[in-house]
Amino acid sequence: MILRLVTTFVFSIRSVLIVWLALFLSMSFSEAQTQVASSVSPDTIRLTLAQADEQFKAHNLTVLATQLGINENKAYEIQSQLRVNPAVYVETMPYNQQTKEVLPFRQSSAQQVVQVQQLIRLAGKRNKQLAIARTNTELASDRFYDLLRTLTYQLHTTFYDLYYTRQTLNVYNEEIATLQQTVSLYQQQYSKGNVPLKDLTRLKAYLFSLTTERQQLLSKLIDDQADLTVLLNTNPSVTIQPIIGSGLINQFSVNTLNLSRLFQLADQHRFDLKGYRDLAKQEEQNLSLQRAMAVPDLTLQGTYDRNGSYIPNYFGVGVGINLPVLNKNQGNIQAAKVRIQSSQQTVNAYTLQVDSDVERAYAKAQQTEQLYRTFDQQFNDDFGRLIDGVTTNYKKQNIDVVEFLDFFDSYKSSQVQFAQLQNNRMQSLEEISFAVGTNPFQN
Fold first, then answer.
1. Most buried of the four, 132, 180, 335, 400, by CB within 10 Å?
2. What family does the Swiss-Prot or TrEMBL record give for this protein (predicted)?
3. Do 245 and 157 reside in the same domain of the chain?
């Protein structure tokens, strides 16, 4: 029995030493990271959401590259307006056998032929090709604005994530700093035999748990920082610190929005949907062009023959046209009709998808808004004052370690959950803007 008690006691001491050693290594690693970070001293830029939007539109490389695609298609419009170049044919005799001369251009008995041809496109083919080229420019514009919508949504959500992650990190930093002081005091009291080992172990274990959770937040902070650096095209060594005023958080509410109005905005501003509609329009333009291609083009020709005709210096004018007997472009016309039907079905399906996106984003935002409005925002301030009193009473040993850690953990959880609730609310509003393709509070 005595041997079992001794074994149990040794095992407990060993467990405590392992926890204490892990905590010491974690704290040492955290302090080393802090020293390295302070030695680097990276520059920090403070940005509001409006400033981030301006920098994003001016410097994002993907946006700038996609915008050049619009100019490229405008150049194709210019090309489609150009007429067919005339063709010139020249023929001469290389050697005159009678006069034994090479290339006898000046001999009155030499033979030369000159022909000039000009293709005249009929049935409005050039205008129809121009219409297709203009629709291609519209499609390039649709792709650009849809990319802008997607990247703006990514920018805003990352901006809010980074901001509220920093807010949560401040809570952890505050708790860890307070708890480190408490652990240090309790370590001194334990050395004097005034406090039991189990209380000190509980404090160190909880401190280790907080440090681990804080490390996970730091990893998320690094990821968000990297994403913003790419979106804003800034120097990776520069730290971006988002700024969100309290007025911005409560400025907008989903309760002021109307679902039918959101459907209208999505119909007007969802450029991915507009892209499908432009594709359907282009298929109709293609059918018109294919029908025009069934009409043969006209060729005008002028001929000069020096000595090869029945009279010297012959001038002639000719007209040529293909006879649409065997090939009337029937296959291309039929394929164009099928593609019109297919594109219209695609537009209908995507319209349904867009309406579903809007309705889902609106419903989720309503739920988040309701939860946010029911949360007592004064609760966190009161809890903050309460936890100060709890810490003071614990140091005076008016409450035990279990009650102290329970209050400490409750305070941390409430602060973190409130920050997450605020983030979820702003994210849901951004999801509505993403679903309708524009900011519904400004339209």
1. 132
2. Belongs to the outer membrane factor (OMF) (TC 1.B.17) family.
3. yes
Model pLDDT for residues 362-418, shown as the tens digit of each residue: 999 999 999 888 876 665 555 556 666 666 666 666 667 777 788 778 888 888 888
The contacts of residue 270 (CB under 8 Å, 6+ apart) are 146, 149, 354, 436, 437
Mark whether 396 and 283 lie in a shared domain.
yes
Cβ count within 10 A of residue 111 = 15
H-assigned helices in 115-196: 125-191
User: How far apart are the C-alpha atoms of 297 and 320, rounded to whole Å?
Assistant: 9
Number of structural domains in the chain? 2
Residues 375 and 418: beta-carbon distance below 8 Å:
yes
- The label of the residue with tokens 């041809």 reads 117
Residue 301 sits in which domain range?
A: 84-120+296-326
Tell me if 106 is assigned to some domain: yes
What DSSP element (H or E) covers 213?
Answer: helix 197-232
Residues 41 and 108 in one domain: no
* DSSP string for 328-349: --HHHHHHHHHHHHHHHHHHHH
Do 94 and 103 touch, CB atoms closer than 8 A?
yes
Residue 419 within any structural domain of the chain: yes
Q: Is there a single domain that holds both residue 50 and residue 145?
A: yes
* Residue partners of 200: CB distance under 8 A and separation at least 6: 183, 186, 187, 190
C-alpha to C-alpha distance for 136 and 74, rounded to whole angstroms: 9
User: How does pLDDT run across 182-202, given as a tens digit for each residue?
Assistant: 888 878 877 888 778 887 888
Q: How many CA atoms lie within 13 A of 443 on its CB side?
A: 16
Phi, psi dihedrals of residue 304, rounded to the nearest 5°: -125, 125
Q: Are residues 172 and 76 in the same domain?
A: yes
